[in-house]
């Protein structure tokens, strides 16, 4: 199969031009067609010589994201289920906020992390996405927004999959997104979320970026976290927190801790007190997430009053905490829900 043109950074496109006897500046022209003009074929790239366009057509292909279905929420959230070239499916979500449009992208088909409250893990991991398949999700979303003169202003890598288990593709994607000659998304408007893949956390600390880091912890101790997140057996909670401290010392950038509140499991006052103790003196923010109901799981949501009490306990202990605003609740916008329904319908 021909490689995807979106798999290549600007520098790699320039290198390709040089290796193929073309002027290096053609790489910049190609990059502009892909991310500024956002065309969908090489034939449309009219300032490239026809022989070069033919060569590109023979060497590369565009990512095919075939729209299987699209749901639009009352709050403006749009959720896509895209089909890939190999008949797998992925989800992408556009979320509209007062401050702009955010897109949530997927980095893997399925997920092997195994969080017991998440629909993404149903069916396990099928494969990693290429950098181009991640990039195409943003390009397609931007093409949709072009119709109303809007733009993607922020990106969250919080869709299905574990981005730090697809590290190289994720970083290539990020370099393309932040490039000033491309979509030019501000680094501080991008957040990458991991379940705590410790070696990649250390690696990311060395990347020298302004991209935000979020860590899914969902429990204040090792025993409970192992029950909720099997990945904790590979990378224990203590090691994850130590990696966070290294990241903070190296970058000076605040970490977001994501904590899904599950009724009667990890949402009691003592859990909040214990979490505050673990995070004390860390430059951090806790994002409390009322768990979404997944039919295949048995967890229930934390009562509203207890959610606010959990937040109050953290704040009394000088831990900044917010409750995630729910979006797309009426269209199954949580990670993996739409794909799970699709898998069920196609497998009978």
UniProtKB/TrEMBL annotation:
<dbReference type="InterPro" id="IPR040072">
    <property type="entry name" value="Methyltransferase_A"/>
</dbReference>
<feature type="binding site">
    <location>
        <position position="118"/>
    </location>
    <ligand>
        <name>[4Fe-4S] cluster</name>
    </ligand>
</feature>
<dbReference type="InterPro" id="IPR027492">
    <property type="entry name" value="RNA_MTrfase_RlmN"/>
</dbReference>
<dbReference type="InterPro" id="IPR048641">
    <property type="entry name" value="RlmN_N"/>
</dbReference>
<keyword id="KW-0479">Metal-binding</keyword>
<dbReference type="GO" id="GO:0005737">
    <property type="term" value="C:cytoplasm"/>
</dbReference>
<comment type="function">
    <text>Specifically methylates position 2 of adenine 2503 in 23S rRNA and position 2 of adenine 37 in tRNAs.</text>
</comment>
<feature type="binding site">
    <location>
        <position position="115"/>
    </location>
    <ligand>
        <name>[4Fe-4S] cluster</name>
    </ligand>
</feature>
<dbReference type="InterPro" id="IPR058240">
    <property type="entry name" value="rSAM_sf"/>
</dbReference>
<dbReference type="InterPro" id="IPR004383">
    <property type="entry name" value="rRNA_lsu_MTrfase_RlmN/Cfr"/>
</dbReference>
<feature type="active site" description="Proton acceptor">
    <location>
        <position position="91"/>
    </location>
</feature>
<feature type="domain" description="Radical SAM core">
    <location>
        <begin position="97"/>
        <end position="330"/>
    </location>
</feature>
<feature type="binding site">
    <location>
        <position position="193"/>
    </location>
    <ligand>
        <name>S-adenosyl-L-methionine</name>
    </ligand>
</feature>
<keyword id="KW-1015">Disulfide bond</keyword>
<feature type="binding site">
    <location>
        <position position="111"/>
    </location>
    <ligand>
        <name>[4Fe-4S] cluster</name>
    </ligand>
</feature>
<dbReference type="GO" id="GO:0030488">
    <property type="term" value="P:tRNA methylation"/>
</dbReference>
<dbReference type="GO" id="GO:0002935">
    <property type="term" value="F:tRNA (adenine(37)-C2)-methyltransferase activity"/>
</dbReference>
<protein>
    <recommendedName>
        <fullName>Probable dual-specificity RNA methyltransferase RlmN</fullName>
        <ecNumber>2.1.1.192</ecNumber>
    </recommendedName>
</protein>
<dbReference type="Pfam" id="PF04055">
    <property type="entry name" value="Radical_SAM"/>
</dbReference>
<keyword id="KW-0963">Cytoplasm</keyword>
<dbReference type="Pfam" id="PF21016">
    <property type="entry name" value="RlmN_N"/>
</dbReference>
<keyword id="KW-0489">Methyltransferase</keyword>
<dbReference type="InterPro" id="IPR007197">
    <property type="entry name" value="rSAM"/>
</dbReference>
<keyword id="KW-0819">tRNA processing</keyword>
<comment type="similarity">
    <text>Belongs to the radical SAM superfamily. RlmN family.</text>
</comment>
<feature type="binding site">
    <location>
        <begin position="161"/>
        <end position="162"/>
    </location>
    <ligand>
        <name>S-adenosyl-L-methionine</name>
    </ligand>
</feature>
<dbReference type="GO" id="GO:0070040">
    <property type="term" value="F:rRNA (adenine(2503)-C2-)-methyltransferase activity"/>
</dbReference>
<dbReference type="GO" id="GO:0019843">
    <property type="term" value="F:rRNA binding"/>
</dbReference>
<keyword id="KW-0408">Iron</keyword>
<dbReference type="GO" id="GO:0051539">
    <property type="term" value="F:4 iron, 4 sulfur cluster binding"/>
</dbReference>
<feature type="binding site">
    <location>
        <position position="292"/>
    </location>
    <ligand>
        <name>S-adenosyl-L-methionine</name>
    </ligand>
</feature>
<keyword id="KW-0411">Iron-sulfur</keyword>
<keyword id="KW-0004">4Fe-4S</keyword>
<dbReference type="InterPro" id="IPR013785">
    <property type="entry name" value="Aldolase_TIM"/>
</dbReference>
<dbReference type="GO" id="GO:0000049">
    <property type="term" value="F:tRNA binding"/>
</dbReference>
<dbReference type="GO" id="GO:0070475">
    <property type="term" value="P:rRNA base methylation"/>
</dbReference>
<keyword id="KW-0698">rRNA processing</keyword>
<dbReference type="GO" id="GO:0046872">
    <property type="term" value="F:metal ion binding"/>
</dbReference>
<feature type="binding site">
    <location>
        <begin position="216"/>
        <end position="218"/>
    </location>
    <ligand>
        <name>S-adenosyl-L-methionine</name>
    </ligand>
</feature>
<keyword id="KW-0949">S-adenosyl-L-methionine</keyword>
<keyword id="KW-0808">Transferase</keyword>
<feature type="active site" description="S-methylcysteine intermediate">
    <location>
        <position position="335"/>
    </location>
</feature>
């Amino acid at each position: 199969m021909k490689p995807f043109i979106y798999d290549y950074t600007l520098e790699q496109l320039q290198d390709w031009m040089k290796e193929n006897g073309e002027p290096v500046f053609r790489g910049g022209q190609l990059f502009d067609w892909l991310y500024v003009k956002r065309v969908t074929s090489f034939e449309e790239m009219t300032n490239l010589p026809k022989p070069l366009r033919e060569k590109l057509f023979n060497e590369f292909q565009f990512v095919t994201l075939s729209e299987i279905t699209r749901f639009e929420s009352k709050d403006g959230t749009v959720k896509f289920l895209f089909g890939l070239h190999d008949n797998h499916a992925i989800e992408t979500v556009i979320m509209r906020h007062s401050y702009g449009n955010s897109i949530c992208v997927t980095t893997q088909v399925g997920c092997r992390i195994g969080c017991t409250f998440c629909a993404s893990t149903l069916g396990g991991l099928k494969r990693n996405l290429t950098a181009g398949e991640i990039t195409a999700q943003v390009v397609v979303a931007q093409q949709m927004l072009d119709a109303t003169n809007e733009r993607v202003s922020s990106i969250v890598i919080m869709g299905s999959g574990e981005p730090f288990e697809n590290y190289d593709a994720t970083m290539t994607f990020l370099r393309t997104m932040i490039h000033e000659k491309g979509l030019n998304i501000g680094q501080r408007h991008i957040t990458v979320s991991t379940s705590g893949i410790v070696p990649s956390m250390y690696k990311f600390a060395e990347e020298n970026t302004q991209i935000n880091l979020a860590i899914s912890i969902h429990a204040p101790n090792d025993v409970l976290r192992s029950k909720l997140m099997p990945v904790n057996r590979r990378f224990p909670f203590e090691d994850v927190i130590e990696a966070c401290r290294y990241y903070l010392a190296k970058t000076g950038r605040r970490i977001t801790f994501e904590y899904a509140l599950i009724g009667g499991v990890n949402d009691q006052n003592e859990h909040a007190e214990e979490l505050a103790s673990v995070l004390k003196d860390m430059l951090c923010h806790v994002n409390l997430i009322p768990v979404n109901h997944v039919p295949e799981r048995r967890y229930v949501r934390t009562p509203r009053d207890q959610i606010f009490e959990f937040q109050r306990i953290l704040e009394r202990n000088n831990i900044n905490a917010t409750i995630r605003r729910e979006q797309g609740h009426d269209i199954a916008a949580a990670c993996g829900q739409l794909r799970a329904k699709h898998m069920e319908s196609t497998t009978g």
